[in-house]
Amino acid sequence: MGTQAETRQPERKLTRKGQETRRRIVAAAAQLMYERGVTEATLEDVRAAAGVSGSQIYHYFADKQALLLAVIEYQTEAVLDMQQSLFADLDTMDGLHRWRDALVEYQLRLQCQGGCPIGSLGSEVAETNPEARLAAATGFLRWEAAIRCGLQAMHDRGELDGDPEDLALATLAALQGGLLLTQLQRKVRPLEVALDAMLNHIESHTRRP
């Protein structure tokens, strides 16, 4: 399998209409891959869902692999954008708890269906598509970095004596495990328990004035 640079179409400057068409294709592909899985979501399905022609798809994407990489990027941006306003406050325990509450509330609104879009894609391609696996892993690294940034700020202020890097990784791992069990059990308790245990662990490493 070629490298990401080889698989993607050469970069070209798109018109506004072209950008909108490309985004519509990616959004349609993301929804279909989320609902059916990568293998079952065919390019013909994407064409129909996006309301475009086959030639339009191939105008923006050399093949399904290129579209898959775009979908992983799209889902990563969606997941991180949804939490962006909360990331800025992860440098306090109150902010961490608000983030936890928002994640739980979102799963309740979804009726505990779907799991994590990045995780779902990542688990499906991990053993068969090295390039897509790395793209999903990069998405998780960005998520971890956002968590670590808040913990690092606490550490820099002398309020946290734990290792921000290890704590951020453990928090993301707890979150992903909680999301998977929440999806499988169709109840939010696994996510609540996983995040509460992790936040309690972080708080045990804080230094009170």
Automatic annotation (TrEMBL):
InterPro entries: Homeodomain-like_sf (IPR009057), HTH_TetR (IPR001647), Tet_transcr_reg_TetR-rel_C_sf (IPR036271), TetR_C (IPR011075). Pfam families: TetR_C_13, TetR_N. Residues 1-20 are annotated as: Disordered. Residues 42-61 bind DNA. Residues 19-79 form the HTH tetR-type domain. Residues 8-20 have a biased composition (Basic and acidic residues). Keywords: DNA-binding, Transcription, Transcription regulation. The keyword DNA-binding applies. The keyword DNA-binding applies. This is TetR/AcrR family transcriptional regulator.
